[in-house]
Amino acid sequence: MRQAWRVADVRAAEKTLMDRLPEGTLMRRAAAGLARRCALLLDETGGVYGAHVLLLIGSGDNGGDALFAGATLARRGAQVRALLLTPERVHLAGLAALRAAGGFTTAEPPLRADLVVDGIVGIGASGGLRAPAAAVVRGLGSLRGRTGDRPLVIAVDVPSGVTVDTGDVPGEAVTADVTVTFGCLKPAHLLGPAATRCGEVELVDIGLGPVLVTDPAVRVAESADIAAWWPRPGATSDKYTRGVVGLATGSARYPGAALLSSSGALAGPTGMVRYAGSAHAEVVRAHPSVIVAPRVAEAGRVQAWVCGSGLGTGDEARTELRSVLATSLPVLLDADAITMLVGGEHADDLRRDAPVVLSPHDGEFKRLAGEAPIIDRAGAAARLAAWTNAVVLLKGDRTIVASPGGEIWANPTGSPALATAGTGDVLAGLLGSLLAAGLTPVRAAVAAAYVHGLAGRHAATAGPVTAPDVASALRPVLAGLLG
């Protein structure tokens, strides 16, 4: 599992550590890690000696890290130029170290650079880049290195111009090939459009871990976590002890939603899938192992329900939603079920002791919460989770899972391939299967999003992706993941 901390928590931990160490220790550790990664990047394009390195230097410690790293590269024979964007506030010790090593300052960006080091602003900045820095960043695309290509860009801690705690990019910002961060990950490395600006993220240990005493702001599951959580049958398991998931999805108008949610559920860990709805004839023809019924009340015993995908919003659909919410079972509400919550007539139905998971896309989220989750997706999901007392899975390229207690997870496997009709129905079925197999709502949501994202990527290797392609990719992806 990877974890990220907010700026205030990082600053507090840094202060605690600096009070225990000789002055400048943390900066020397950070600069050493940064210089090492810069050297590795330059080795890929001809080596450090003779390489042209451009340092973009703002004020404060972020610029200091870049200057000290630049001094190390200069001592190894690189030609290092520092463009000082705020000369009056430059880190003086770092500048002195660079000059002593043979580096120098420049008033304008050079025509050539093999590597650009972004030390403009660090984690304490807010808002987009100011005009002078923004102009320099826009001009980076015109630079050329010794291979004739654009220079590689390495960001110090975070790409300058991103909002660290939310992952928003409010204006001009650096797009890095590599981001070297210090002590711990920050939310911008994992959330929103900022995450795509970071490139590869390398974490340099500066000794911060033992003094980070607060809970992380964001968690990210890794393949080992998903494999450890995933329910597996044992020697004495049968189809009932593995869990039975119920699907109240699809309709005569949208039978595809029933078929796709069934496909997702069948790829999950449960031993049986029951379908209840008007598309029951189509479901059993496509999936003979699914047990079908015309209504929720006639479905039989299940351990969790999935409700809403393609269900419609008429009186019959509302009756089915109420039937599902009246149970004492975990429930996933998707698509039309979320739409039916908006009017408020089902508010009392949500006051239940059993868990609820909501899985809106941005449009459904806006109708439910009253505003779109644009600037701070994680914060918006957390607020909705607290308000509804439900786990919220906010779909998107960086899908967010938020619990009512404030726990936030970001999914790292998102793919543009999933931006096609019906893939959310597949996700709903898979998530419901995990709920029925006994996973907690948060783990079920995190695991389902992770595997669903991998399936989208897998399907995309064969060309344009449809929702059935994603459903078909779930099994090979799980085979690889679970070994």
Task: Walk me through this protein's architecture.
The chain is of the alpha/beta class and 483 residues long. It folds into two domains: 2-215, Rossmann fold, CATH 3.40.50.10260; 223-482, UDP-N-acetylmuramoyl-L-alanine:D-glutamate ligase (3-Layer(aba) Sandwich). 38% of the residues lie in helices and 16% in strands. It contains 16 helices and 18 strands. The chain has helices spanning 7-18, 25-43, 60-75, 92-100, 131-138, 192-197, 223-229, 255-266, 280-286, 315-325, 336-341, 362-369, 377-388, 423-436, 441-460, 467-482, and strands spanning 2-4, 52-57, 79-84, 104-106, 115-119, 152-156, 178-182, 200-204, 218-220, 244-248, 272-276, 291-293, 304-307, 331-334, 356-359, 391-394, 400-402, 408-410. The strands form three sheets. It has a nine-stranded mixed sheet, sandwiched between helices. α2 crosses α3 and α15 (441-460) packs across α16 (467-482). The longest helix is centred in the C-terminal third of the chain and has 20 residues, at 441-460. It is elongated, with a radius of gyration of 26 Å.
When the domains are counted, the total is: 2
As a percent range, the share of helical residues equals 25-40%
Mean pLDDT, all residues: 95
What strand order characterises the main sheet?
12-11-10-13-14-15-16-17-18
Radius of gyration over all CA atoms, rounded: 26 Å
Largest sheet: 9 strands, mixed
How many strand segments? 18
Bulk shape: elongated
**CATH fold assignment of the largest domain:** UDP-N-acetylmuramoyl-L-alanine:D-glutamate ligase
- Give the CATH superfamily of the largest domain: Ribokinase
Number of helices: 16
CATH hierarchy: architecture of the largest domain: 3-Layer(aba) Sandwich
Terminal CA distance reads 19 Å
Structural class: alpha/beta
Share in β-strands? 15-25%
**Which regions have little confidence, pLDDT < 50, spanning 5+ residues?**
none
